[in-house]
From TrEMBL:
Domain Aspartate/glutamate/uridylate kinase: 39-297
Descriptive protein name: Delta-1-pyrroline-5-carboxylate synthase
First and last residue of the signal peptide: none
Keyword Nucleotide-binding: yes
Domain Aldehyde dehydrogenase: 330-597
Cell location: Mitochondrion matrix
Tree of life domain: Eukaryota
Gene3D superfamilies: Acetylglutamate kinase-like, Aldehyde Dehydrogenase, Chain A, domain 1, Aldehyde Dehydrogenase, Chain A, domain 2
Length: 769
């Protein structure tokens, strides 16, 4: 087996590890995620993909990348076919070279002429170019595929091969046998003999299709061979509602039969016979025949190296053709609705936003039984599946006490909403009658992705409402029933001011990675969940800021001057009160002088009583004859009744240890020495640093923020528990009276004053924001 180039992602190995089973070919796939099941795949390479920009040769690097992807899929059980252009371009390159060489030789043989000869190349006939280029093109494919121990076969076809029953059956039999022998058929129209396409030749139905370009050839071939998927690669990102490059052009994610009326087609590509209109007609014909279709860009250097494998993996690339329209709006439509309502929400008076949040708090207590009933269903499903770890089950579980706590927190947020969006931060008199203000405004559309934590939904909804932001929610399927009830209550509260659509739950089969690509629609992503979730979101986000913490590797350092009573209480609370929380203690650092003292024995006895499993750090293990299991890593977030215990020589060494192994989340010192404590608080670079207090206080509700959208360990915008302030940005408002910059030049009549003015707060309605 050949090795895979470094450009291939780990996701490819997950994709091709096992070959999909052949499926009964009845209809096309309804959703992108189902494309992973595709067994037989046709890849159509358009002329613009295969040829160079000068149209006189092949784009070898691009072609090699495509061959690598096709070979990898073929070698792992898929049945791959290629419909390729390029013979004309390859032949044109060869013929130009031969003509120029011939002219040069003739000129050299002629004598007595001092005038230079015209070395221009005459126009070349396309069929001649195709004849000259077919063998070379196939030889190139063979050489490239041989690098992956993959065999290829050339098949040249014309219209007659499909319209004559006997020839069509022969073609089908040949291709079927090649696929059975694990050979990749490389198919092209026989351009050396094919007649020019007729003007009225078009796609006329399931049983009649004219092969006038490689788009129609690929569609006809895919249906004939009962292919599961046709990937048509071109030089545009996919299908747009208007010609690409125009101001109103938007990429269409999913195209449904009957949507042609909403499309304005542009001109065809720089090379080839077909344009986008031809591609759409061919795609719809294939779709009607039971083959799924994706049209995508095969020339973009950022994605060419993985475009085919990404499509087969179900990622949101290009335009996916589907016969199944979703019952509700698409995620793009949901985002637009949320943004529109969010702008109205931002323009509401603060008192009205507070009313919405208070109403939501009331609904939580009024509908407690309904919420708990839905939550019970989720817990039963999660428990029976056995796939959720205990830490996630605890997060999934709601109780009367939790709901009451949520309601109290929401009322705190309602109070904070009185002084959030529209607050004046700075006022400056720039010059006479020219005043500048900096005011707080919402960020825009915020996407919050959360795992099995339904209490997150009303919390972040209230914070978004208070700050005037539109909100998109993507919850884990583990909490589907609970989330559904909580969303209904949230939208019911918003309805009191006609803003039900300001908070939306993405409930389609939308992959998280697809959401992260909507950089023109979403302004901020906040992941709430495991370290792996946060990292996956950060990798997937394309041009959208991500606000989240890396890990919750929180430390508690017990100093030599610590109070025994405080140590036992703080360590127990930090580790045992809720071990699944991101602010729970994961590493206990103990000053060396405390070893072999009664306090040390009390700490160990308490942890054992609470059934905390201890993992010894290297230095701690060296002090013990029989030590607990040694920690595999000093940078572990256990999220359970486990922790690492390590020994340090001083407060300074504790700080260095935390900087090396911590995650800049929350870290604690326990000491009675005020000087040592202040040094720890100042030197440690974490989002939250505490003295003689449990790490569990790192929470928006406990900080008086009402709730939090998450805890950020980033170093810009917001850090620590993120409440309303973290969902606001600013804009500058300048009010003048016909002022121009020229007025302040050397010859002007105005001078800058730059006087600070008092912050006289006033109600600012952010209309149209």
């Amino acid at each position: 087996m050949c090795s895979v180039s470094k450009g291939f992602s780990a996701s490819l190995f997950l994709l091709v590890r096992t070959a999909p089973q052949s499926r009964v070919h009845a209809s096309s796939f309804a959703h992108r995620c189902a494309l992973r099941q595709a067994k037989r795949i046709v890849v159509k390479l358009g002329s613009a993909v295969v040829t160079r920009g000068d149209e006189c040769g092949l784009a070898l690097g691009r072609l090699a990348s495509i061959v690598e992807q096709v070979a990898m899929l073929q070698n792992h059980g898929r049945e791959m076919m290629i419909v390729t252009s390029g013979a004309v371009a390859f032949g044109k390159q060869r013929l130009r070279h031969e003509i120029l060489l011939s002219q040069s030789v003739r000129q050299a043989l002629q004598s007595g002429h001092n005038q230079p000869k015209d070395m221009s190349v005459p126009a070349l006939e396309a069929r001649a170019c195709a004849a000259a280029g077919q063998s070379g093109l196939m030889a190139l494919y063979e050489a490239m595929f041989s690098q992956y121990s993959t065999c290829t076969a050339q098949v040249l076809v014309t219209n007659l091969d499909f319209h004559d029953d006997e020839k069509r059956q022969n073609l089908h039999s040949t291709l079927q046998e090649l696929l059975r022998m694990n050979i990749v058929p490389i198919i092209n129209t026989n351009d050396a003999v094919v007649p020019p396409p007729e003007h009225n030749s078009d796609l006329h139905g399931v049983n009649v299709i004219s092969i006038k370009d490689n788009d129609s050839l690929a569609a006809r071939l895919a249906v004939e061979m009962k292919a599961d998927l046709l990937i048509a690669l071109s030089d545009v990102e996919g299908l747009y509602n208007n010609p690409p490059g125009t101001d109103d052009a938007k990429l269409i994610d999913i195209f449904y039969p009957g949507d042609q009326h909403s499309i304005t087609f542009g001109t065809k590509s720089r090379v080839g016979l077909g344009g986008m209109e031809a591609k759409v007609k061919a795609a719809l014909w294939a779709l009607q025949g039971g083959t799924s279709v994706v049209i995508a860009n095969g020339t973009n250097p950022k994605v060419t190296g993985h475009v085919i494998t990404d499509i087969v993996e179900g990622k949101k690339l290009g335009t996916f053709f589907s016969e199944t329209k979703p019952a509700g709006p698409s995620v793009e439509e949901q985002t637009e609705m949320a943004r529109s309502s969010g702008r109205i929400l931002a323009s509401l008076q603060a008192e009205k936003r507070s009313e919405i949040i208070c109403r939501l708090a009331d609904l939580l207590t009024e509908k407690t039984e309904e919420i708990l009933a839905a939550n019970k269903l989720d817990l039963e499903v999660a428990s029976s599946s056995g796939r959720l770890p205990s830490a996630m089950l605890k997060r999934l579980s709601l109780s009367v006490a939790k709901i009451n706590s949520l309601s109290i927190g929401l009322r705190q947020i309602a109070t904070s909403a009185q002084n959030s969006a529209g607050r004046v931060l700075r006022r400056t008199r720039v010059a006479h009658n020219l005043e500048l203000e900096q005011i707080t405004v919402p960020i825009g559309v915020v996407l919050v992705i959360f795992e099995a934590r339904p209490d997150c939904l009303p919390q972040v909804s209230a914070l978004a409402i208070a700050s005037g932001n539109a909100l998109l929610l993507k919850g884990g399927k583990e909490a589907a029933n609970t989330n559904h009830v909580l969303l209904q209550l949230t939208q019911e509260a918003l309805s009191m001011h006609g803003l039900r659509e300001a908070v939306q739950m993405v409930s389609t089969r939308e992959e998280v990675e697809g959401l992260c690509r909507l950089d023109k629609m979403i302004d901020l992503i906040i992941p709430r969940g495991s370290f792996q979730l946060v990292q996956d979101i950060k990798r997937a986000a394309k041009g959208i800021p991500v606000l989240g913490h890396s890990e919750g590797v929180c430390h508690v350092y017990v100093d030599a001057d610590a109070s025994a009573d405080k140590v036992i209480g703080i360590v127990r609370d930090s580790k045992c009160e809720y071990p699944a929380a991101c602010n729970a203690m994961e590493t206990l650092l103990i000053h060396r002088d405390i070893l072999r003292t009664p306090l040390f024995d009390q700490i160990i006895d308490m942890l054992r009583t609470e059934r905390v499993r201890i993992h010894a750090g290297p230095r701690f293990a060296s002090y013990l004859t029989f030590s607990p299991s040694e920690a595999k890593s000093l940078r572990t977030e256990y999220n359970d009744l486990e922790c690492c215990v390590e020994v340090v020589d001083s407060m300074q060494e504790a700080v260095e240890h935390i900087h090396k192994y911590g995650s800049s989340h929350t870290d604690v010192i326990i000491t009675e020495n005020a000087k040592t404590a202040e040094q720890f608080l100042q030197q440690l670079d974490s989002a939250c640093v505490f003295w003689n207090a449990s790490s569990r206080f790192a929470d928006g509700y406990r900080f008086g923020l009402g709730a939090e959208v998450g805890i950020s360990t980033a170093r810009i915008h917001a850090r620590g528990p993120v409440g309303i302030e973290g969902l606001l940005t600013t804009k500058w408002v300048l009010r003048g009276d016909g002022h121009t910059v020229a007025d302040f030049s050397e010859q002007g009549t105005q001078t800058y004053l730059h006087e600070s003015l008092p912050l006289e707060q006033k109600e600012i309605l952010l209309e149209g924001y």
